[in-house]
Amino acid sequence: MATMPATHGHSEVCCNIPPIVSSGYVPKGTYEQLGGMKTYVTGPADATKGLVSIFDIFGYFDQTLQGADILATSNEHQKHKIFIPDWFKGNPVPTEWYPPDTEEKQEKLGEWFGNNDPHGVAAALPEYVKALQTANPSIKSWGVLGYCWGGKVVEHVTSASSNPFTVAAAAHPALIDPTGAEKISVLYILLASGEDPADTVKEFESKLKVPHHVETFADQVHGWMAARGDLSNPRVKEEYARGYKTLLDFFGKQWQ
Fold it and tell me: What confidence tens digit (pLDDT) does each residue in 42-68 have?
C-alpha cells in the first residue's frame, strides 16, 4: 500500500488508509458470537488494543464496517482489533422510516427508541468487555467509538464508575449534552457534522476536563462517517476518509 503524504496536520503514519470503496464494499472481518451477541470482528489476532464500536440506529451498514476495517488495518505502529456488537439483535431502524414524515413512521420510531435506550446499552458494556477480554487475552487496553445514537452510549458509559475504557470517540453523536461532558473520565474525541448544533458542540468542549479533540466537519451531514455517508459523492468520500484519519491520529498520539 502506497504511503500517503501527511495532510490536515496529521502525521504521515496515520494517513496510510486504504482507498475508500464507494459502493459494494466487501468487509474484511467476520461475525462471531461474543458476550452473547453477534459481533463483527476485524483486526490482527495479536492486537494489544481493542475498540468496541457502537453503530448508529441503522445497524451494520457498509460505511460503518468499512470504517472499522480502516481503524483495524491502517496504523502499523498500533494494532487495533475492532468489535461491533449487534445491540439491536437483528432489528435496526429500517431506512424507509426516514424521514419520519407520517404518523405511522413516528409511532414506529418512538416504539423502537423506547426499546433501545442508550442508558441500557451503556450499563451492559462493562460485562460485554469482560467477555471480550476473556476471548482476547492479548488486548491490554480498551476504547469505545460511537456513531450518532452510539455516541450517546459513549457519553453515558464513560461517565459511570464502572467504565472499562481508556479512550472514547464519538462521531456525530446524538443528543449532545454539555452537562454530560463534565462527567467524562477518559481521553475523548468528538467529530461533529455541520448539522450538529455549533453552540452546543462548543459548550460541550468547554466543559470537558480530560485531554480531548473536538472538530466540526462543517459541510458534512449528521451521519457522514456511518450509514448516512454518501460515498459516491467525492466531497463526502474525502471527508469520510479524513474523519477516520483524525481518529487514528488521536489514538496514535493519546492512547498509550
Answer: 999 999 999 999 999 999 999 999 999
